[in-house]
């Protein structure tokens, strides 16, 4: 599975949109982009995933570039409870299920 | 639905002791995983089981063994604990059917080896 690159930390003002970038320049055609977050020391929580098209759910939006080499997770109205470590991973789902690498993620701090 | 449950929540061991971390999921998922997370770092995959009856090594398997007891349960065993194994251990499961494979994580086991 492809590796990903994320900035180590970002700040965002409460109520504003948080845009978290992820670079996955070696992504293969059958790899999905997944985003998870980890609040404090809890287990990671699934946020959203996508293959080619932009996706939106009740938590966030995922924008994937046309060449699929990068993506952006958007939290439209960040709250203090969104302070967490955000992980971007890419993985193939129908072959070797265990090889996704979480990396160190981006620590997002939402400030009042 | 309890999701993914892990026991124990906390454990302190002395060097050389053995123990088994238990994980169970009630979502009828095919795949299960064990990760470790050291302070300030991301998750590293120890072992995984793509389906019942199979297990494979991840990034950091040395010092660990696993057993996929049945579809619900996946245990991680430390035969001779070492201080380097002090970490938080997370179990996860995923359906591994169709085109996507979202992982669902347990609350973690915090292990200290003295």
Keywords:
heterodimer; A: 112 residues; mainly beta; 5-stranded mixed β-sheet; 4-stranded antiparallel β-sheet; 45% strand; globular; B: 114 residues; 7-stranded mixed β-sheet; 0% helix
Q: What is this structure's SSE topology?
A:
The complex is a heterodimer of chains A (112) and B (114).
Chain A: E1 9-13, E2 18-23, E3 32-38, E4 45-50, E5 55-56, E6 61-64, E7 70-75, E8 84-91, E9 106-111
Parallel strand pairs in A: 1-9
Antiparallel strand pairs in A: 2-7, 3-4, 3-8, 5-6, 6-7, 8-9
Chain B: E1 4-7, E2 10-13, E3 19-25, E4 31-37, E5 43-49, E6 56-57, E7 64-68, E8 74-78, E9 87-94, E10 104-105, E11 109-113
Describe this protein's structure.
The complex is a heterodimer of chains A (112) and B (114). Chain A is mainly β and 112 residues long. Chain A is 0% helix and 45% strand. Chain A has strands at 9-13, 18-23, 32-38, 45-50, 55-56, 61-64, 70-75, 84-91, 106-111. In chain A, the strands form two sheets. Chain A has a five-stranded mixed beta sheet, with no helix packed on it. In chain A, strands 2-7-6-5 form a four-stranded antiparallel beta sheet, with no helix packed on it. Chain A is globular. Chain B has no helices and eleven strands. In chain B, the strands form two sheets. In chain B, strands 2, 4, 5, 6, 9, 10 and 11 form a seven-stranded mixed beta sheet that branches. In chain B, strands 1-3-8-7 form a four-stranded antiparallel beta sheet, with no helix packed on it. In chain B, strand 5 (43-49) and strand 6 (56-57) form a beta hairpin. The chains are: A mainly beta (112), B mainly beta (114).
């Amino acid at each position: 599975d492809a590796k990903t690159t994320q900035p180590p930390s970002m700040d965002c003002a409460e109520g504003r949109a948080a845009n978290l970038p992820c670079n996955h320049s070696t992504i293969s055609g059958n790899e999905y982009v997944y985003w998870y977050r980890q609040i404090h020391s809890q287990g990671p929580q699934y946020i959203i995933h996508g293959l080619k098209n932009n996706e939106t759910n009740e938590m966030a939006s995922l924008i994937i570039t046309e060449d699929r080499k990068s993506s952006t997770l958007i939290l439209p109205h960040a709250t203090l409870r969104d302070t967490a470590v955000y992980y971007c991973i890419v993985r193939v789902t129908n072959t070797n299920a265990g090889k996704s690498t979480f990396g160190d993620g981006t620590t997002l701090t939402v400030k009042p | 639905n309890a999701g993914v449950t892990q026991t124990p929540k906390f454990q302190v061991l002395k060097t050389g002791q053995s123990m088994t971390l238990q994980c169970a999921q009630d979502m009828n998922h095919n795949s299960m995983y064990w990760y470790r997370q050291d302070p300030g770092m991301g998750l590293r995959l120890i072992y995984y089981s793509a389906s019942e009856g199979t297990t494979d090594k991840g990034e950091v398997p040395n010092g660990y063994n696993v057993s996929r007891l049945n579809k619900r349960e996946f245990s991680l065993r430390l035969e001779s604990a070492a201080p380097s194994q002090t970490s938080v251990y997370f179990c996860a499961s995923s359906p591994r059917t169709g085109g996507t494979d979202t992982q669902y994580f347990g609350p973690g086991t915090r292990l200290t080896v003295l």
